[in-house]
Predict the 3D structure of the following.
Amino acid sequence: MKYIAMILNGLLLIGCQSNQGNAAHSIADTTLIADKDVPQKEMESNACAWLKIQVESYFNQEESSIMESMTTKEYYEYKMDAMNVDLGLTGSLSLTEFNKKWSPFFNVQFAGIGSGFLISGQDWKEIKLSTCDIVKETDTEIILKVLISDCGLSIDYHREISLVKVDGEFKISDVKEYD
């Protein structure tokens, strides 16, 4: 068992080190557009490239406005409600109220109640989008299976992220948080 843990930690370290060669990009200078004229295969790689830039920029810059700009209005409101369930703040919902409000639109079982955006940890050191695979694609939506890694804390977060095209740009429309 000890050897398996050492191997897994080694693989995580290698995966995180291979991402360090990628320069951090700001959202402003690397906007990838979801253009109807772009070939399908290129569109798939654009979705993962866009998501990588957005996720890593969000955690490097720690600005809440980045979250709002990279998500649909509905998902932003849903996740803000999920983060504030039962906090007793003005406007926060009880779990029952949250489920009643959002279950017609989202699978609330994977909302990440009480946890932050994209990762469930409150603290992080070095967030990288380690893997990104297309699960399903339609004319209106791309569903990605991703692994978000905190290389500094050796923690992985398994997510299924749905992207839609809004005014020619990708937006996150849902995140299913599995851990």
In short: Helices lie at 2-19, 40-61, 64-70, 73-83, 95-102. The radius of gyration is 17 Å. Strands lie at 127-137, 141-150, 155-166, 169-177. The CA atoms of residues 29 and 83 lie 30 Å apart.
